[in-house]
Amino acid sequence: MDDKLKIGVGIGIAAIIAAGGGYCLLSSDKQTPEIAIHNVENSIANHNREEFYKGVNLDSILDYSYDGIINSLTDSDKTMPPEAKDSVKRFTQMLRTPLILSMKAAIDSYVATGNLGGDAGIIELFGRTGIDKIEYRGVERVEINPENANEATARIKIYQPDLDQELLIIAQLNCDSDGNWQIVRLNNFQDLVNSVNSVRSVQLNKYLVQSADVISRHETIIREAEQKYASILATGTVGQENIRADLRALMLDVVQKDWEARKQELSALSVPPEAQDLQDMRLKICDLEIGYVQDYVSWMEDMKEATIKAAEVKKAQARDLNVAATALANKLSGQEEVTQNEN
């Protein structure tokens, strides 16, 4: 298995704990925690489900991790009001059993085929934990509990790109009555999810600030162009060729180029997953405004009703989409929540 294998959620619960063979005591006939972990790693590499479940108590791991996953993801969602978060948490407790079964099915598919399977929503949920980007870096050490020889912990090194640092996942192993060691829990899994969400929150705020600056600068140019447009029309009508020539130059050389520049600058920003819908809206607005300019300029050349109507449709769509984008930006920034509390 590649030491830098990217693991999805299936691995977050499975391959994250699948540590390296450097600690495998192959000279001993008796199983040890190190050998158990090595066997788990091999089972994933060889898609051996039977061997995997010998070393991993997936039911125990998912049951322990479930609340941490749900609570962390819900608490980090800025678009959700506090009362809604409480409702979601209560609702997800009602769905605990079927959701865990869906998680287990996705992980089972990963072990068997190397690909997560099952419900798309579960796969997305796993992705939001940040586990899908984790790189395995090896085992730091394995320790037997000095107070209980049937318990051990494995300190597993991972790298999380969102955090840009190497971290430790603490996996707990228990020894059953037959002397077999099995991974039963990821002790600090919620801490990892919380750290990822905290960094993503910083990334989201950075995107909101940077994109707002781009929009603000270009809105100033558009407002100035609108004033120039009005001043040109104040000297005549669109029926006059010289007026149309001035308007065409303004629309193409200033307005369209500004929307193109705005789109280019927005596209250059790093967009966190939480802001992707907002980014898509803003880029679509740019396209609609560019299309409006092109149709409007075409209308000044052919003076056909169908052409000006096409321009007006694009302008109306851009206007409506801008209202929706502004509302979403306010939600992501928390401004909507502040406004509601003030009211």
Q: How would you sum up this structure, described in words?
A:
The chain is of the alpha+beta class and 343 residues long. It has twelve helices and five strands. It is elongated.
Strand content: 5-15%
For the record, give the distance between the C-alpha atoms at the N and C termini, rounded to a whole number: 57 Å
- The overall average pLDDT, rounded, is 84
Principal-axes shape call: elongated
Quaternary organisation of the protein chains: single chain
> Which structural category fits the helices and strands?
alpha+beta
The helix count comes to 12
Order of helices and strands: EHHHHHHHEEEEHHHHH
Contiguous low-pLDDT stretches (5 residues minimum) are 1-11, 15-29, 337-343
What's the total count of β strands?
5
Largest sheet: 5 strands, antiparallel
Radius of gyration over all CA atoms, rounded: 28 Å
Q: Percentage of helical residues?
A: 55-70%
Kindly report the spatial arrangement of strands forming the biggest sheet: 1-2-3-4-5
Q: Tags for this entry?
A:
single chain, 343 residues, alpha+beta, five-stranded antiparallel beta sheet, disordered N terminus, disordered C terminus
Summary, kept brief:
The protein is of the alpha+beta class. It is built from twelve helices and five strands.
